[in-house]
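note to self: dont lose this again. the chain is below, predicted strucutre after it. 342 aa total, dont forget to put it in the shared folder this time
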Amino acid sequence: MSDILSTPTIRELYEREEHERLSVHAAFSDMSRGRDTPEQESDVRTAFMRDRDRIIHCKSFRRLKHKTQVFLAPYGDHYRTRLTHTLEVSQIARTIARGIRCNEDLTEAIALAHDIGHTPFGHVGERALTKLSGRTFSHNEHGVRVVEKLEKDGRGLNLTWEVRDGIRNHKTSCRPATLEGDIVRISDKIAYISHDIDDGIRAGVLTEEQLPAECTDILGHSTRDRINTMIVDAIMNSQDTDRLVMSPGCYTSMMQLREYMNENLYTNEYVKHEEKKAVKIIEFLYEYFMECPEQLPDDSRAALACGTDRSTVVCDYIAGMTDNFAVEMFEEIYIPKSWSKR
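---
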């Protein structure tokens, strides 16, 4: 009987393996700062494995497939959405994490949830809700709110502190507390700079030859080469470091290419010609639900009844919409129906 009681669980074996295999700078599952609400540990999954699985199975993650990355309502099956962007970030981040012996489960959990707080229509919706509410709406902060307060009918996902920190701090100006969070922060840039160029070329907005030669001569002359160059550079320069490091030439080229994209793709008139319509949809929906809170869904009305201010509840509801649902909701409210005799 004593032998049975002393047999380690599969989770405990994973945790031991982490201490044997990972860098001293990695985050260890059995040393997590924990969850807001303590839970009994799983016998077969570490804390970060459970977080990853909860994120994949939540509704907010599934809705990313119908949220804009760059192109609003693109014609064609091969343009990125917020979900495919997330999967590419996850792949890049896991490769880097493995290369520098970090915790892949934590890295993957952060990567899968890093954009879970995005609004419909991408950053357009973010800016619109900021203007309408009078408060800064940041998708990274809202992502934490989603996993803490909004998912599972207001119960939240009860994720570990390390995952929530990674979601909150994945933006360029932030500094995650873990090396795994830092990996996702850089992987996000590697992914969107690379695949947004690919989508821009596919759309005929950019050509490979138009990209600044001082950047492509260092990073590569194709999407595949640029991704590989940045990943390998990050791995080779981050062995036994507590932050993710890229060589000065590679990092500078990456950020210069990012600035080029800001000037030539993200603000391109062709790409953004539908933005004004998207803003109008969000404005109409915000004003409508502010005036008619009784039309909000049950969970939103329950939040109002618990004392959450109306603007926050309306922003939560709109931010959770997909592009398609926002358009359908707008049409349902504002577009007259054809009359027919019954």
